Amino acid sequence: MQTLSSVSRALAGTLLSAICCYTLASFGCPGCVQAAPRSVTPRGPLTPDEKNNIAVFEAAKGSVVYISTSEQVLDYWTLKVQTVPRGTGSGFIWDSAGHIVTNRHVIADAAEATVRLADGKDYPATLVGVSRTHDIAVLQIRIPAKSAVPIPIGTSHDLQVGQKVYAIGNPFGLDWTLTTGIVSALDRSLTGEDGVLIQHLVQTDAAINPGNSGGPLLDSAGRLIGMNTAIYSPSGASAGVGFAVPVDTVNRVVPELITKGHYASPSLGVQTDETLSRAIARQLGVQGAAILRVRPDGPAAKVGLRGARIGRRNAIFPGDVIVALNGKPVDSVARLLALLDDCRPGESVQLTVWRDGKEFRVSVTLRSGEDDN
Questions:
Q1: Strand partners for 266
Q2: More confident residue, 11 or 347
Q3: Which residues does the annotation mark as catalytic?
Q4: Radius of gyration of the chain (CA)
Q5: What 3-state class would DSSP assign to 107?
C-alpha cells in the first residue's frame, strides 16, 4: 500500500515529465518533433576573379612538389648513426627530365631529400647543383616523362607594382595551399642567413609561411614569375612581406646548374673579404670593396689594378678600393658581387676606383669565375 508521500512523489514526477515534454516540443525537441533541413540559398555564378583563382591553382598544382629532408645524427648512447627528419619545403617541376627547383636553404645540410608529387607518390631525389649566391638548388627524381608537368615560365623584368600574384606551396606541411596578393615592390635586396646578399627580389604581400620556401610565385596567367624564398616579419610571426627570387634569375641560373652542377658568376679576377674590406675602407674613410689580391693575368691585373700589401708585423697597406660599377655605388663586397651577377662573362664594365685619395675610372672585361679556381 502506497503512502501519501510516495503518491505525492509519483504525481509530481508525472506532472514534471508532462511539463518538460510540452516545453521541449514547443522549442523543437529532436525527440519530439521532426526538423527538416533548411532550404539552400542560391549563390549565383562565381565572379571572374574567383574563376581565375581556381583556374590558376588547378593548372599549376600538378607542377608543385612537396620536399621533405632528413639528416643523419649520432646517438651517443648506442654510437649508431640514425636518420631523422630535418625539415620541409616546396619546389616545382622544371622539365620533363624530372629536375626540381627549390631554395638552397630548403635542402642545405640534408643527408636525404624526398619529393612528393601532386598524385601523392614519393620519390627519392638526388642533388644536381646549388647556387649559394641566388639561394637556388636543383634536384632530380626519376619519373616517367608523362608524369612530369613542367611549370610555365614567365618573365620578371616587366612586372609592375600592383600586379596580382599567387603563391602555391606546402606551409606547415599542409599540402598544396594557395595564397594570393599583389606585387608590393620590386628590386629589393635581402641578406640571407649565411650573409649572402640576394638582389632584385620581388616583394609581395601574399602570405609566405614556413614550408612555402622554394614554391612558385605565379602571375594571373599562371606563369612562374618568381620562387618564394623568405618572409620579413618584425613580430616573428608568418605575417609581413614576402620575397621571391625573380624568374629571370631562375631561368639564367638553373640551366647552368643542370649542365655544370654550379653557377660561375662573372669575375674581375680579384680576391676580396668583407671583414678586411670594411676595416680598410674605414681606415681610408671611403665606402667600397677593397681589393686584397689581384689574380695574375686576370681582368683586373690587365688594367693595372692593385691589391693590398702585407708589411712587417702583418701590417696591411691598402691598395685599390672599388667604389662603383657601371655608375652604381658599391658600399661593400656583397654589393660588388651582386652587381657583377647582373653581368655576363666577356662583358666590359666600368669601375670607379679609389686610389691614394683620388678616384679614377677604368674599363674591365669580365671573365668566368671558373677561371679563378
A1: 368
A2: 347
A3: 105, 135, 213
A4: 31
A5: helix
Least confident of 17-31, 249-263, 308-322, 330-344: 17-31
Cell reading at 292: 686584397
**pLDDT above 60 (res 141):** yes
The sign one gets for the Cα dihedral 132, 133, 136, 140 is negative
Residue 8, classed as helix, strand or coil, is: helix
Q: What is the DSSP letter of 238?
A: S
Please tell us whether the domain made up of 266-372 is placed in CATH 3.40.50.720: no
Q: Angle at CA 104, nearest 5°, toward 99 and 106?
A: 95
Domains 63-147 and 164-260 share a fold: yes
CATH class assigned to 164-260: mainly beta
Q: What's the whole-number mean pLDDT along residues 68-90? A: 66
How sure is the predictor about 373, in pLDDT bands with cuts at 50, 70 and 90?
A: low
Taking the C-alpha atoms of residue 7 and residue 1, their distance in angstroms, rounded to an integer, is: 10
pLDDT band at 4 (very low <50, low <70, confident <90, very high): very low
For domain 63-147, the CATH class is: mainly beta
Query: What residue spans define the domains of the chain?
Result: 63-147, 164-260, 266-372
**CB–CB of 328/342 below 8 Å?**
no
